[in-house]
Amino acid sequence: MEKEKRHTLVDNAALRRYEMDLGGEKAVVEYVIGPGYRILTHTEVPPKFEGQGIGRELVAGVLKDMKSKNLQVIPQCSFIARYIDRHPEWERIVVREVVHR
Asked: In 3-state terms, what secondary structure has residue 29?
């Protein structure tokens, strides 16, 4: 049985990104702030950590944090959009369109 890895996730609001410390390197999800929602624009995992489930752990942590803050999500990043498609329990916090003005 594979042991699940757990890393600390931090919302670095000053840089508008979530960061997961991987022991000297960081996996990140960048976002844009809107009223009551966040547009998740980019996910990045350092190449040496790819294929180890870090991206899934990162996105799950980001979505859990946003849900706990009663924020809705606009998944602009294709990795996050695919994750949500594969985990439909997150659909309830997803906004597909934002009407401006």
From this structure: strand
